[in-house]
Amino acid sequence: MAKKTLKDDLVRDQRRAANKTIRTVARNIMNGLADAGPEWSGDFKNSWASYSVSNGQMGTGTYPYKLADVPDLPVTAREMARKTRIIIENTAPHAAVAMDLEPGEFIYPGFEPQGDVVFRGVRRDSGIRGDIDKGGGGNRSTAPLDWYTTYARGGKITKAVQKGIRVVTKEANQGRFTEM
To answer: Within 10 Å of residue 135's Cβ, how many Cβ atoms?
Structure first.
């Protein structure tokens, strides 16, 4: 076996730092999605998960998500070269409806929402969760219409990435970087 060199150690440490940055960004995005999305019972908010593309390992937890809720990622040169390293999705059975991607049937569950109501009115015929028209109806929405596509296409993902990089860089500069 070849003798390890200082250069090998530096490369390994750089890969670990990159790995922690990716995981920190994933955690930030999961928390951002949970904050932006609807919250009636808390089920949807607590169903964000992340998957390692290379080994299929899944990370789960509940809001607020922690770094330990994101799976460890391999740090080999081959894995580091992957374009996609981690996937984030919501595992709730009604996720597509809660994300305003599919219509759904809305049945009052018998209790008020845990999240703040952002809109009240009459639900339109589209069946889309957030598609509520002003009026005297009692329908409530705890997230604006198209909150998910707005989050995904807007600047919030960029901010989550930048924050993740800042956190890991600050830890490294303070000598507190540790492998998770």
So the answer is: 11
